[in-house]
Amino acid sequence: MDFGMPYLLEMQSIEECCALAKELGLDFVELNAGFPACLVETLDPAELYRLGLKYGVYFTLHIEEEFNPFAFNTTIRNAWLKSCRHALSIAVALKMPIVNMHFPRGDYITLPDRRVCMYECYAEAFHAGVVAFRQMCEEALAGTATCISIENTNGWKTHERHAIEYLLASPVFGLTMDLGHSHGVEDADEPFFRQHEEKLIHMHGHDAVGKKHHLPLGDGEIDLAGRFAWAKRCGARVVLETKTIEALRLSISRLPKFLV
Predict the structure, then answer these.
(1) Cβ(34)–Cβ(64) under 8 Å?
(2) Within 10 A of 74 (CB to CB), how many other CB atoms are there?
(3) pLDDT tens-digit profile of 99-148?
(4) Which of 34, 214, 230, 248 is least crowded, fewest Cβ atoms below 10 Å from its Cβ?
(5) Measured CA distances, 181 to 59, 126, 205, 215 (Å)
(6) Beta-carbon count within 10 A of 210 CB
(7) Residue 202 and residue 100: Cα distance in Å, rounded?
(8) CA atoms of 101 and 112, how far apart (whole Å)
(9) Tens-digit pLDDT profile for residues 224-251
């Protein structure tokens, strides 16, 4: 089972991340397009290939957390799709196995007695966006081993699960289980992951206490041994998604006791 690290705020460059990954014996670095050093528009596949060879690592990519290919505004939606196509072209050029995304929740309207999700209310327009996104990804990734992996965040709603199932029906989509996000919503999405276990290809591994996430392994309440065994059984890779170098080092020192 491969383990990797995320791009960290303390890092000054992608090369610095690669050097740390090599020092720690990790297999890959998950670039995060939300950081200036990892902006999709500035990533150079040739330079990333050079760094991968130099440090003996490969890359995955986490596209921007605000990424929304279902936006009702056509100009905004097209801009996101253009950025995503560029990200996928880089991923394909580098043979990245994973491009990770959050499933966008969309806007809510607060009524006197409830909050209404716009994507649920305008289901036809939302579904049209989902269909177009799947088609774009299938065209971009045809004949490659790269997958778009959808990460859980705050507990998927029914209409979101249906949309994700439509995407998962395509071979270019998979699932990322974020352990802390899952723990923070009392594992509300776990039945969905179990139902689609063959699509679990990626995991964000960190500990959590309640809704406090991204703790070093062993500092929280999660059954890490069980989660990592699940990842191993599914052939999923794991990002040790702490937020500091110190926490990452601590997690790696404790990792062996959670591997069965």
Answers:
(1) yes
(2) 8
(3) 999 999 999 999 898 888 999 999 999 999 999 999 999 999 999 999 99
(4) 34
(5) 23, 24, 10, 12
(6) 11
(7) 9
(8) 33
(9) 999 999 999 999 999 999 999 999 999 9
